[in-house]
C-alpha cells in the first residue's frame, strides 16, 4: 500500500499493517475494559494530576510500555541474527537499520530515563521529608512533554517512517541527502520535545532537594538516592542543552538547506563532538540514580548504615565531573591524534577509581550485615558482579590503541548492555519492587519477583556474554547478517536463546504486577524495616504525606527513631507548607499541542506550523495569567464555609 502524505512517502509493508491491526485491536479492547470496569475517573485523575507520586507512576507505566515495544524489537533483531544468511520476515537491510535505531533510541530516552525519573518522583520528596516537588505544575508539564516526544518517536513506525541512522544519528548519514525520509525528523522532534521536559524535571529536582528538605536534614545527612538525583540533575542541566543545540543545527541542515554537518563547508566530526559531549554524560545520567537506589537498598537489607557514606557522595560527584571529560573515547578511531587520544584514555580510566570505591563500599556494607534476600536485594546482589564485568570491558575499551580493534564491533554492544542493563535496568527493577508499597499500598508478589529476577539475570548473561566473542571474532555492530564462514554463528545463536529467556523474565514481571493487583497483599507503612523517611509515612503516600514535619537529627532517621525513640520521629518546631497542588488539564494540552506542532514540521505543513505556533504562544499567555494562589485561597474559603 503506497500513499502520499503531504509529499512524504507512506508505504505500508506487512509488518506495519500487522502493527496497525494490533494497535487498533488493543485500543478497542482497552476502551471496552476501562468502560466496563468504570475506570475513566482514574484516567482523568492521573491525566490532570500534579502530585509527585502519581506523576512518578505515569513515568513508570509509560517506561514499561516502551520497554515492551523496544524489547520486541530486540527480539526481532535477535531472530534475524540467529542464523547465518537469515531472511526473517521483512527485517533485513533498511528495516534492520530502523529496528536497531528505534530500539536503541527508545531504550535510552523513553525507558532508562523515565524509569529513573519516575522513581525519583515517587521516592525523593518522601525521602527528604518534603510534601511534594517544589513545582508540582511544572512536574506535570515535564511528564506530558516527555510523553509527547516519546509518542512521536514511537509513532514513526506506524507512519512508515522510522528513524534509521542509529541512536547516535551520525552525520552525514542523518542529513537529508542520505536519509530523506521523515524518519530522522521524528527523532529530532521527539527527542527535542521530551528533552525540554527532562530539563524542566532536572530544575524541579534541584530546587526540591535544595529547598524542601526537612529541618535538620543537612546535605550530608541526606540518603544516597536523593544525592544521586541531585548530581544527576546537574548533569542533565549541563548535558541536555548540548543535545538541544546539536539537534537544532541538524534540523537546520535537514529543513533549511544549511550544511553545518556536511558538504564542503560543513564537517560531520562536529556532530560527533556535540553528540558525545551530551552522550557520555548521558550514560552517567542513567547510571548514577541506579547507584543511589542500590545504596539505599543494600543498606536497608543488610540492616547497616551504608559503609563510607562520605566517600560515596564524593565518588558520585567525581564521576559526574569526570563524565564531562571523556567524550572522545567514542571517537578514538576518528584520528584526532595521539595526544588527544591519550588524554581521553587517561581520564576514562580514572573513572574506574571512584566507581571502584563505590563497589567496595557496597560490599563492605553487606559485610557482617544481617542480609535478607528479598527481591530488591536480589537485584542489588545481581547488579554488583554484572556491572563490574561491564566496567572491566569499559576499561579495556578505554585503551585507545586496543579500541581500534574493538570499535563498532559486538564487543561494544556487549559492553554497553552490561552497564546499562546490569546497572540501570536492574536498578529500576530493584527500585520498583522496593517502593511499590509507597506507590500503591501493596507489595509485589515475592515468589514471582524472585522468578523474574533469576530468569532475567540468567537470560541476560546468556544473551550478552557471547557477544564479546562475536565482537572479538570481528562481527561489526549494526549489520543485519553474516555468513557461515564468519565464525560467529554459535555466539549469535546462544545470544538469541538468552534474549528469549529475558523476554520470559519480563513477562513474569508484568504478570506479577497484574497478579499483585488482583490479589492485593496490603503493605504496612514500613514493609522492609526501613531506615529513611519514606517509611514513616502511610502507604500509598498521601497527598500531603508529612502530617508533622519531622526534625531530622541523624542519618537514617527512621532507623535511629526505632533504636532510641520507640519509633517516634522528633517533630520540627515549625511545619513545612506544601506547594500548591492543582488539578489541571493544561499540561496534557501543552503536550498535545507540541506533538501536533512537531508533526506540522515533520510533514512541512506551513499553515499548521503557524497556527499551532500561535496556539503554543497563546497557551503561555493563558498560563501566565492563571493565578493559582488566589484560586486556591478562594476554594479553601468556600470549603471552610460549608
Ligand atoms: C532486553 C534485552 C535487550 C536485547 C536482547 C538487546 C539487543 C540489542 C541488539 C541485538 C542490538 C543491535 C546491535 C547492533 O546491531 O548494532 C542492540 C542495540 C542497542 N541497544 Fe539493546 N537490547 C536489549 C536491551 C537494551 C536496553 C535496556 C537498552 C538501554 C536502556 C539498550 C540499548 C541499546 C542501544 C543504545 C543500542 C544501539 C543502537 C544503535 O546502534 O544505534 N538495549 N540491542
Ligand atoms: Cu562514553
UniProtKB/TrEMBL annotation:
The keyword Oxidoreductase applies. Keywords: Oxidoreductase. Its EC number is 1.9.3.1. This is Cytochrome c oxidase subunit I. The lineage of its organism: Bacteria, Bacillati, Bacillota, Bacilli, Bacillales.
Amino acid at each position: 500500500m503506497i500513499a502520499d502524505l503531504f509529499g512524504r512517502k507512506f508505504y505500508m509493508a506487512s509488518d506495519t499493517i500487522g502493527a496497525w491491526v494490533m494497535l487498533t485491536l488493543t485500543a478497542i479492547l482497552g476502551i471496552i475494559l476501562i468502560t466496563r470496569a468504570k475506570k475513566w475517573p482514574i484516567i482523568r485523575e492521573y491525566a490532570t494530576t500534579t502530585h509527585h507520586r502519581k506523576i512518578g507512576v505515569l513515568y513508570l507505566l509509560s517506561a514499561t510500555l516502551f520497554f515492551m515495544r523496544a524489547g520486541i524489537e530486540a527480539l526481532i533483531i535477535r531472530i534475524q541474527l540467529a542464523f547465518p544468511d537469515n531472511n526473517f520476515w521483512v527485517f533485513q537491510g533498511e528495516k534492520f537499520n530502523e529496528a536497531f535505531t528505534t530500539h536503541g533510541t527508545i531504550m535510552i530516552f523513553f525507558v532508562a530515563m523515565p524509569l529513573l525519573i519516575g522513581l525519583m518522583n515517587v521516592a525523593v520528596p518522601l525521602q527528604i521529608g518534603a510534601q511534594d516537588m517544589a513545582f508540582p505544575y511544572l512536574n506535570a508539564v515535564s511528564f506530558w512533554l516527555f510523553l509527547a516526544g516519546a509518542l512521536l518517536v514511537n509513532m514513526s513506525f506506524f507512519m512508515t517512517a522510522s528513524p534509521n541512522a542509529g541512536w547516535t544519528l551520525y552525520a552525514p548519514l542523518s542529513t537529508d541527502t542520505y536519509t530523506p525520509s521523515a524518519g530522522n525528523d521524528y527523532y529530532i522532534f521527539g527527542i527535542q520535545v521530551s528533552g525540554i521536559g527532562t530539563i524542566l524535571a532536572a530544575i524541579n529536582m534541584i530546587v526540591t532537594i535544595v529547598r524542601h528538605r526537612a529541618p535538620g536534614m543537612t546535605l550530608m545527612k541526606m540518603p544516597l538516592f536523593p544525592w544521586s538525583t541531585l548530581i544527576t540533575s546537574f548533569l542533565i542541566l549541563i548535558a541536555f542543552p548540548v543535545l538541544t543545540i546539536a539537534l537544532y543545527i541538524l534540523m537546520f541542515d535537514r529543513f533549511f538547506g544549511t550544511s553545518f554537518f556536511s558538504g564542503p563547508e560543513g564537517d560531520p566530526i562536529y556532530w560527533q563532538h556535540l553528540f558525545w559531549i551530551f552522550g557520555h554524560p548521558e550514560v552517567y545520567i542513567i547510571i548514577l540514580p541506579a547507584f543511589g537506589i542500590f545504596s539505599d537498598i543494600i543498606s536497608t537489607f543488610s540492616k547497616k548504615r551504608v559503609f563510607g557514606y562520605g566517600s560515596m557522595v564524593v565518588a558520585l560527584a567525581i564521576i559526574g565531573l569526570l563524565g564531562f571529560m571523556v567524550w572522545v573515547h567514542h571517537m578514538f578511531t576518528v584520528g584526532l591524534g595521539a595526544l588527544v587520544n591519550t588524554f581521553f584514555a587517561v581520564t576514562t580510566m580514572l573513572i574506574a577509581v571512584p566507581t571502584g570505591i563505590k563497589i567496595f563500599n557496597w560490599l563492605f556494607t553487606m559485610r557482617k550485615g544481617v542480609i535478607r534476600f528479598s527481591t530488591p536485594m536480589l537485584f542489588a546482589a545481581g547488579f554488583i558482579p554484572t556491572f563490574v564485568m561491564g566496567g572491566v570491558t569499559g576499561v579495556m575499551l578505554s585503551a585507545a590503541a586496543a579500541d581500534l580493534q574493538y570499535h563498532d564491533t559486538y564487543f561494544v554492544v556487549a559492553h554497553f548492555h552490561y552497564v546499562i542493563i546490569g546497572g540501570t535496568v536492574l536498578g529500576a527493577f530493584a527500585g520498583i519492587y522496593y517502593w511499590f508499597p509507597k506507590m500503591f499500598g501493596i507489595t509485589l508478589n515475592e515468589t514471582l519477583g524472585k522468578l523474574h529476577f533469576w530468569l532475567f539475570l540468567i537470560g541476560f548473561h546468556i544473551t550478552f556474554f557471547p557477544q564479546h566473542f562475536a565482537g572479538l571474532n570481528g562481527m561489526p555492530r549494526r549489520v543485519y547478517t553474516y555468513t557461515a564462514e564468519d565464525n560467529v554463528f554459535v555466539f549469535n545463536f546462544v545470544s538469541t536463546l538468552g534474549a528469549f529467556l529475558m523476554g520470559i523474565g519480563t513477562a513474569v514481571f508484568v504478570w506479577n504486577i497484574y497478579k499483585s493487583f488482583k490479589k492485593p497483599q496490603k503493605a504496612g507503612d514500613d514493609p522492609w524495616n526501613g531506615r529513611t523517611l519514606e517509611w514513616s509515612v502511610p502507604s500509598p503516600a498521601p497527598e500531603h504525606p508529612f502530617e508533622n514535619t519531622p526534625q531530622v537529627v541523624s542519618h537514617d532517621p527512621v532507623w535511629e527513631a526505632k533504636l532510641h525513640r520507640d519509633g517516634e520521629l522528633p517533630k520540627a518546631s515549625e511545619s513545612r507548607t506544601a506547594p500548591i497542588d492543582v488539578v489541571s488539564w493544561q499540561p496534557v494540552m501543552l503536550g498535545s499541542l507540541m506533538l501536533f506542532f512537531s508533526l506540522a514540521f515533520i510533514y512541512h505543513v506551513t499553515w499548521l506550523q503557524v497556527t499551532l505556533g500561535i496556539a503554543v504562544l497563546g497557551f503561555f499567555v493563558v498560563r501566565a495569567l492563571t493565578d493559582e494562589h488566589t484560586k486556591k485561597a478562594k476554594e479553601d474559603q468556600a470549603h471552610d464555609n460549608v
